[in-house]
Design brief:
- The protein is built from three helices and five strands.
- The chain has 97 residues and is of the alpha+beta class.
- Strand 3 and strand 4 form a beta hairpin.
- It is 21% helix and 25% strand.
- It has a single domain, classed as Roll (Ubiquitin-like (UB roll)).
- InterPro entries: Beta-grasp_dom_sf, Mopterin_synth/thiamin_S_b, SAMP1_3, ThiS/MoaD-like.
C-alpha cells in the first residue's frame, strides 16, 4: 500500500523533510508504519514513541484529516492512499499576562 506522511515541527526536522510518500506492506497499522519510518529516520523514533513503545501522548496524529484518538492508537488500521499527519504537541503558556 502507498501512504503519504506529512511531518510538522521537530518531526519534520527529524524526518529530513515535510512529507514522504512510500510503499508499505498490505494490512498495515499506524504503529507498524511509524516503526518503519523510525527505522528510516533514526532521530524520529524517540520523538514519536515513549519508552513503553506507545505513541507519545504529545504527538498529534491524523489520518485523512481525522484525528486519531483513544488507545491504543498504534492499532489503527490504515488503507492504501491514506494521508497521515504527524505533529508534536505544543507546550508552554504563561507568557505575558
Amino acid at each position: 500500500m502507498q501512504l503519504t506522511v506529512e511531518f510538522h515541527g521537530t518531526l519534520r526536522d527529524a524526518a529530513d523533510g515535510s512529507s514522504v510518500t512510500r510503499q508499505f506492506g498490505d494490512d498495515q497499522t499506524l504503529g507498524a508504519v511509524l516503526e518503519a519510518l523510525a527505522d528510516d529516520y533514526e532521530s524520529l523514533g524517540p520523538l514519536v514513541f515513549g519508552s513503553d513503545g506507545r505513541i507519545r501522548s504529545n504527538v498529534a496524529v491524523a489520518v485523512n484529516g481525522d484525528p486519531v484518538t483513544g488507545e491504543p492508537r498504534r492499532d489503527r488500521q490504515l488503507s492504501d492512499g491514506d494521508r497521515l499527519m504527524l505533529a508534536p504537541g505544543l507546550a508552554g503558556g504563561g507568557g505575558n499576562r
